[in-house]
Each structure stands twice: as C-alpha cells, then as structure tokens.
Design goal:
This protein is mainly β and about 120 residues long. It has strands at about 1-5, 10, 15-25, 30-40, 45-50, 55-60, 65-70, 75-80, 90-100, 105-110, 110-115.
Length: about 120
C-alpha cells in the first residue's frame, strides 16, 4: 500500500485547509485509516481515525474543528481542518491499517506540512 498526502500549506489562524491522502496498491482489507501529526520536539500524535464502519475518533484538541472522511473503498482519505490554530502547525501524515490472515499491517505515507501563522 502506498499513501500520498497532499493539501498542506501556510494558513492564517482561523483559516481552513483540506488534506487528502491517496491510497494505491493492495488496498483490499484496509479496515481503518487515520491522520497523525508531529511537530518539532513533540511526539507523533493521532489526530483522527476512521474505521470501515465510519466510526471516527479525534484527539480532544481538534474536536469540533476537524472532520475526517473517506471514500467507500478507502482509496482516498480526507481531513477538513477549520478554525486552525498555531498549535496545529505540524507535519501531517496518513496511516492505513490492513488486516490480512489475522495479521495487522501498518502503512504510513510521507507527510504534508501545515503551518498556521499570521
């Protein structure tokens, strides 16, 4: 599975961005996808996750501002980010979880930089 994230950039506080992640390769049996972020000096954190039954999970700091969504086949993952704050500045990466013969396989894409600054 290959994952390619896009959509990052520089935005002023209060602005919006929409990230996309395109999945290719053997995408069958993907049962969840997620967005993670990491900023300098901080650990990588889970921002949002969506399961195969569209159950979503968000880190508290983005609840009410970010929305994760996907297409039906897990070919594309989205993250709509509204009311962005300087604390959201980070490299955002997409993740896919695939289960094959009872074994969990984790896939990571390269990140896209999001910078929130006036």
């Amino acid at each position: 599975v290959q994952l390619q994230a896009s959509g990052g950039g520089l935005v002023q506080p209060g602005g919006s961005l929409r990230l996309s992640c395109a999945a290719s390769g053997f995408i069958s049996n993907i049962n969840a996808m997620a967005w993670y972020r990491q900023s300098p000096g901080k650990q990588r954190e889970l921002v949002a996750l969506i399961s195969g039954v569209d159950r979503t999970t968000y880190v508290d700091s983005v609840k009410g501002r970010f929305t994760i969504s996907r297409d039906r086949a897990f070919r594309t993952l989205y993250l709509q980010m509204n009311d962005l704050k300087p604390g959201d500045t980070a490299v955002y990466s997409c993740y896919a979880r695939r289960v094959l013969s009872g074994k969990q396989l984790d896939y990571w894409g390269q990140g896209t930089q999001v910078t929130v600054s006036s």
